[in-house]
Amino acid sequence: MLAPARHSAILAEVQRERIVRVSELAQILGVSLMTVRRDIDTLDDAGLVEKIHGGARLPGGVSTHEPGFEVKSTLMEAEKAAIAREAATLVQQGMAVGLSAGTTTWALAKILSTGPRITVVTNSLRIAEVFHAGNTPSTVIITGGERTPSDALVGPLATSSLERLHLDMLFLGVHGVDAEAGFSTPNLLEAETDRAFVLPPARWWSWRTTPSGARWA
Length: 217
What we know:
By secondary structure, the protein is of the alpha/beta class. It folds into two domains: 3-65, Orthogonal Bundle (Arc Repressor Mutant, subunit A), CATH 1.10.10.10; 72-216, Rossmann fold. Helix content is 41%, strand content 22%. It contains nine helices and 13 strands. Helix 1 crosses helix 3 (33-45), helix 2 (22-29) crosses helix 3 and helix 6 (103-112) runs parallel beside helix 7. The two termini are 28 Å apart.
């Protein structure tokens, strides 16, 4: 496994578990303890994790830390591209399609921007920019709101906009999936906006990208 792939896997594990041990990471990645320690040093220098004795944790120990879009867009790119290609096969011409903010939905937007004419509803300026740059025939509706680290537009303006719209299909990026608790995100306002996305009747898909691949719900 190359260094960028290891770094992505370590960061994903730290975000999921909050605190991880070097020995656990070495077993997961199938590499030596020394390799994991060097990887943690690199991530610590970049401010993505905090090095602690015997392992790593989220920076400052803050459980709600979330890297920005620029960082997240470079993580697990192959997995996100694979998800996007599969998701794009579900979209048909004339549909009203919701795309929540996120780097995996952004990858999907890049494919859909060259596809059939659809109506896109999104709370992501990044996704809107993809369709604009592609000179697509599709119509793009952007919610307003306050911007989060993942470049999502959230808050009352975003939720009120979404509650008035009907979607044929929704692609929702989430941070975690639990059988009882449902979907999770570290940003409360983003959670409220995601809930507004889900409430209108639609056929929807959610995903989160993990070191072992993509998980769909």
